[in-house]
Design brief:
Two copies of one chain form a homodimer. By secondary structure, the first copy, chain A, is of the alpha+beta class. Chain A contains eleven helices and 16 strands. Chain A has two domains: 27-302, L-amino peptidase D-ALA esterase/amidase, CATH 3.60.70.12; 310-431, Ubiquitin-like (UB roll), CATH 3.10.20. At the A-B interface, helix 2, helix 8, helix 9, strand 14 and helix 11 of A face helix 2, helix 8, helix 9, strand 14 and helix 11 of B.
Chain lengths: 435, 435
């Protein structure tokens, strides 16, 4: 019987970097080892993570990330939330009652999603926020709440508030790793990333952490992400930067297609570096934030429940970007493609079938398909493969990262999506684990 | 190592009737046992099924269904095909070169889909059609071809044509069961249905068979269906009848959402009863054809790869039928819902989350959810359950048919979709079985 917080997973090391990750020239990413400071790598942040007893396992289940007191006046923030019609109580409170451009702290609990919990759940989220505000001397509207875990169970508000007070009392400059661990549910490893952006003779820092380990495609499992920088940003700059980066990162792993009741992404800019980038320097900072988010997004795919690999599907030469995206998502979401990938099976017929199903009523006579660099389809028909090509395919399919490239021959638009495979462990986690 | 035609499945008995099947008053459905005549139950049809060696297992892999000679002049037909952009060669030939309102025969091979096979595949389909036409004395355009099986392998046209000739030579009035078996791939049981419609003092017969055992939601596995009646129908009546019935049956099991490269549905009306229904009698015939199709569609869901149950999700009180359908399909396609169902887990939180994800940006404050008749959500929040209710839920979730009803509280529009669960056997069949 697994504990209430989720089934027991061996905590494994985060994968070393990905060849799918393109780093900007001016950006030096820190190592991904669990010791990385993550969200507290930039200056001006404090964090904590501990157990308040929401998870039966006794694992950490409450965490706080806050701007340190001296930077509250200049700090800005931005946030993105799930569009789910049954959005959880903390999401409703954040959207309706928080000053999302001027947040000073976020309190997160794992083990209970506080979703489908009605007025009582809203009150629980408010009391948690108020408790943190009291300890940190913050007005309620600059404290946001996140929750992740089981849907439809009321949290004991007294327990949670007491835990929030304790966590608030323990925030410290090196609390990033503890914070990252406290937001985990079925994650097999903490997801942290951080780095330094060179802006001429000066530099600013970017950091962050995330959780999310469900099947990535219809990301019903909650995705939470907390990003930080010590650059000085206006509210508008923070909002624009976060939105653009999410579009090119989390949205590429099809996380936005079907968001859970709790999905939330926050960006906090402390301003503690004293550096206010603008023009090309702001672009470099944006590229760095995007790189950190992409690193976290790829870690989420790699940690997809039961996943053994990351697959990149690129749709090229489409007539429109919309066509390319639609086809890419159809391939990425196909259970038949996902299971074939799990079996290391170069079953390109399933890729063609799922792509063709996303283009109803059309005739595509000049499609070509490359699987792990081997052309398997040309002019929409099978290519005979040499024995060597078959051997190469069999080997490449076993790699932890697999590339699929479908050229539609319709135009010049491209799109790519990253997804994980589907294996027995996914079923074990989700069918054999009872709510 | 499974044989080329698909993994070995124990051939099991088709499930007895379904409580989800509503039969018209004037229609008497025959038993579903494998001895049912199926497509040759109506008068005026001949059929056969045999092995030509396309499947390594030696199981039947070619079949023919034909209107008997004396009824060819009055017989009519209709057909529906996959909109997949990479439609298989036989589908292309049927759409472009056949007289779909006046077909006299259909030849079907299983074990090879003849998809993504280019000009050579088109030629193979043509030669198969021509071979059958020669033996039966039919011009090529009144013979259609269907294929199902592996994508992207050329069929040996000489072998297939020889087999088609042999199958054509062996058609007989009681060939329906053999035909039904010859079209199977990973199906665990043949899918046949037939019955008699009372039209006042007279009666006509309806019959049919189908194959399809993939995951139903994104039905990438091929669905083939052959329906027959001995009523006299005009071409227009046949076409209208087939389209309407498909909308209310196969489209409710989400088979049309993502169609495979080969999906095809045929209706042949021999006219052998001499009865030409019109007005209310035509409606009764239409209802009977719909009942036969629904029976076959439910058998396909029950035979979903690894499926242990059929789930009906009803979305009620939506603002529009489109909203209701979108939400129903989102729930039916959610891997998290499907795995929970496999584990007999009343995890209604996953149902709410997948439904909410299909309604982005909306607030639905008055949703209620019944799972197996137990109200688990009211006013969009969890209802406390009594011990007895929990016990009832635990028992009902183990039934072979499970009902989910989500009332959105937005209006009066409804929609329902039938789907299967997702378990280890699905992964075993699709990941462990290599192409």
């Amino acid at each position: 019987m697994p504990p209430a917080g989720g089934p027991m997973h061996p905590v494994v090391k985060a994968p070393e970097s990905s060849r799918f990750l393109k780093l900007p020239e001016d950006f030096a990413l820190q190592g991904a080892e669990s010791g990385s400071a993550g969200a507290t790598f930039p200056q001006g942040f404090l964090a904590s993570g501990m157990s308040v007893g929401l998870k039966g396992s006794g694992r950490p289940d409450i965490g706080i990330l806050a701007v340190s007191g001296e930077w509250r006046e200049v700090a800005t923030s931005a946030a993105l939330f799930t569009p789910n019609a049954f959005a959880a109580a903390p999401v409703v409170i954040a959207k309706e009652e928080c000053d999302l451009g001027g947040l000073s702290a976020v309190v997160v609990n794992s083990g209970n999603a506080n979703a489908c919990t009605g007025p009582q759940g809203l009150q629980t989220a408010r009391s948690t926020r108020d408790a943190v505000g009291e300890v940190l001397g913050l007005s309620p509207e600059v404290v946001a709440v996140s929750s992740t875990g089981v849907i439809g169970e009321q949290i004991d508000a007294a327990v949670l508030s007491a835990g929030a007070r304790q966590a608030a009392a323990e925030i410290c400059p090196d609390g990033g790793p503890a914070f990252a661990r406290s937001i985990m549910t079925t994650d097999r490893f903490p997801k942290v990333a951080a780095g330094t952006v060179s802006l001429g003779s000066e530099s600013v820092r970017v950091g962050g952490c995330a959780k999310g380990a469900g099947m990535i495609a219809p990301a019903l499992a909650t995705m939470l992400c907390y990003l930080t920088t010590d650059a000085v940003l206006s509210r508008q700059e923070a909002a624009r930067l976060l939105e653009d980066a999410a579009e090119r990162t989390f949205n590429r792993v099809t996380v936005d297609g079907e968001m859970s009741t709790n999905d939330s992404v926050f960006l906090l800019a402390s301003g503690a570096s004293g550096i206010k980038p603008s023009g090309p320097e702001l672009q470099r900072l944006a590229a760095a934030v995007e790189a950190v988010m992409m690193r976290l997004a790829l870690m989420m795919v790699a940690d997809g429940e039961g996943a053994t690999k990351i697959i990149r599907v690129s749709i090229e030469d489409a007539d429109t970007v919309e066509t390319a995206e639609t086809v890419a998502r159809a391939v990425a979401d196909s259970p038949l493609v996902k299971t074939a990938m799990n079996g290391n099976d170069p079953n390109w017929g399933r890729i063609m079938s799922s792509a063709g199903a996303a283009l109803p009523g059309r005739r595509i006579p000049n499609a070509s398909l490359q699987l792990c660099g081997v052309t398997v389809v040309e002019r929409s028909a099978v290519c005979p493969l040499s024995a060597q090509q078959r051997k190469q395919l069999a080997t490449s399919m076993r790699e932890p990262e697999v590339e699929v490239c479908l050229k539609l021959g319709l135009g010049t638009a491209d799109a790519e999506v990253f997804f994980s495979d589907l294996g027995h462990d996914y079923v074990t986690i989700n069918a054999d684990y009872h709510s």
